[in-house]
Amino acid sequence: MQLCTALAGLEHALLAGDPRVDITAGITFDPRAVHPGALFVARDGRRLDGHRFLALAYRRGAVAALVERTDVELPAGPCVVRVADVRTAAARLASRYYGEPGRELWGIAVTGTNGKTSVAFMLEAVLGALGRRVGVIGTGGSRFEGRPLLVSTNMITTPQAPELQAMLRYLADGGAECFVLEASSMALLHRRVEHTFLDIGVFTNLTPDHLDDHLTLENYRQAKLRLFNGRCRQAVVNLDDPVSTDILALMPDTSVTCSASGRPADLRATDIGISAAGSDFTVHHEGTAHAFHLPVPGRFAVENALAATAAAVLSGHGIEEIAAVLAELPQIPGRFDTYRARSGATVVVDYAHSVDALEKVLTTIRGLATGRVITVFGCSGDRDPGKRAPMGEIAGRLSDLVVLTSTSPRGEDPELILDRVEAGLATTPTPYARIGDRREAIAEALSRARGGDVVLVAGRGSDPCQRFAGRSVPFLDKAVVQELDRAAGGRA
Questions:
Q1: Of the candidates 97, 122, 154, which is a domain's last residue?
Q2: Helix-strand-coil percent breakdown of the chain, rounded to 5?
Q3: What pLDDT, on the 0 to 100 scale, is given for residue 208?
Q4: What's the pLDDT score for residue 49?
Q5: Contacts (Cβ under 8 Å, ≥6 apart) of 135
Q6: The domain that contains 81 carries what CATH number?
């Protein structure tokens, strides 16, 4: 595709070269990923400024570049185009480069602080069981009908726009009918989901998180609201969250509401019963009542199921058939993922990495445990430090024993992270152990657990690696739990 064709209708200024140049090797923000014939997009990042790598990109074969600034040295020869916002432009150009694949697919995006992966998993299960060929892009892995997508990305939740559009093209060419996308706040802020032509946007909840990126809760809220400001045709809204008011104002005639707390909504859950076997509840919709069973305990699971049900209804499916699929829902990896230890204790592996998520999962466990609640957790590095002490306090308040440990310290000193968490934990009377090595911490918790106890291993879910400064180490929490338990003579 010629660059000038991709740029049609987008305000831009030609700084150098011929805009009729052919883009034949894709679009990328990473100069290391440039191949001959590529378009390089120079963006200002939190750590690096892409404008500094123009010369490298050209040496690797880029035939054109998008820039935001003019105060950079332009290598002679290749085409350089200035735009007001390279992220928005890159999303538009990538969509056009790949033939606007979002127009060929039924697209659902899920956003919110907590619940994105669970709702996406539920929708994948429902739509797939009801005959739709569905792809999923998100934290739990990107796949099509259970097979990994053959498009690489270094984004944990939502890929950069060029990779996302490549994935959608792969899905469309492979015969997919629909896709479910987890839309993170940073993805929305950085325009990664622009020009994906979404049919449904799902909002789960908003609680303080990612404030290291957004600085204020208001900025975080505004980032989430971008999904519902012209980027989807219909909305599924959790009426129990105050942000629902903002979404309904943006999409007053195209929103479906849900409530698990008795509010009058289009889909309303009542008679909620939580047990170790899962969650039972009644869904009221259009004057009819439907019995639901979900093999995941917790009110948060009910909220997620309501959101998934609403999106599936908007996708053309009936409530009774949706309920039948959810009743047989497979285990969601890393989300209230349970394992029976040799001691008779139950181990729960959960992603809970925010104040709200940790409190919800511990509250659920507290209501189910017949013995003690033992919590293994810590906080990640290079992430919102303001939540560390509050999470320590919650763990202490809702547990009988806490084993404080490292999660993924990244570039921070892991001991300083633990110091901050411990400051909150120490305000409670709950006994705790501080063991920086996560494997040793899990082993300690398992060694102390007895029949009837519940051990929560929180903060990482199905993340396959621990991340330290400059390196990643394979570490899957549930696999480590199983390995340690087998070494002690147990069986799954």
A1: 97
A2: 35, 25, 40
A3: 66
A4: 85
A5: 142, 143, 144, 145, 149, 167, 171, 176, 178, 179, 180
A6: 3.40.1390.10
Strand partners, 434: 404
Structure tokens at 78: 């290749």
Domain co-membership, 163 together with 243: yes
Instruction: Identify whether the C-beta of residue 107 lies closer than 8 Å to the C-beta of residue 198.
Output: yes
Which tokens sit at 108? 């659902």
Q: Are 292 and 327 in contact (CB under 8 A)?
A: yes
C-alpha–C-alpha distance, residues 391 and 291, integer Å: 35
* 332 in any annotated domain: no
- Does 351 share its domain with 272? no
Instruction: Kindly state whether residues 124 and 249 are assigned to the same domain.
Output: yes
Which strands, in side-by-side order, build the sheet including 13-16?
Answer: 13-16, 79-82, 64-67, 39-41, 27-28
CA–CA distance, 260 with 370 (Å, rounded to integer) = 26
Per-residue pLDDT, 74: 76
Q: Compute the chain's Rg from CA coordinates.
A: 24
Averaged over successive runs of 10 residues, the pLDDT of the chain (492 residues) comes to 92 92 94 94 80 91 91 79 94 96 98 94 97 92 85 70 95 96 92 96 85 76 93 97 96 97 95 96 97 96 98 97 98 94 96 93 95 96 90 98 95 95 97 97 96 96 90 95 87 41
Q: Do residues 14 and 120 both lie within one domain?
A: no
Among candidate residues 294, 327, 360, the one where a domain is terminated:
327
Measured distance CA(442)–CA(484) in Å, rounded: 8
Which residues fall within 8 angstroms of residue 422, CB to CB, at 6 or more apart? 392, 404, 432, 434
φ/ψ region of 88 (left if φ > 0, alpha if ψ in -120 to 50, else beta) reads alpha
Helix (H, G, I), strand (E, B) or coil at 15: strand
- pLDDT score for 210: 62
- The answer to whether residue 380 is domain-embedded is yes
Is the same domain home to 312 and 419? no
Find the length of the chain: 492
pLDDT at position 158:
85
For 148, 332, 404, the CA distances from 366, given in Å and listed in that order, are: 36, 21, 19
Same domain? For 140 and 278 the reply is yes
Residue 256 maps to a domain: yes
As a whole number of angstroms, the distance between CA 111 and CA 220 comes to 12
Return the CATH number at 458: 3.90.190.20
Is the CB of residue 420 less than 8 Å from the CB of residue 385? Answer: yes
**Domain boundaries, position 52:** 3-97
Mark whether 169 and 318 lie in a shared domain: yes
Nearest residue to 112 via CA among 46, 158, 177, 144: 158
Residues 384 and 248 placed together within one structural domain of the fold? no
pTM: 0.92
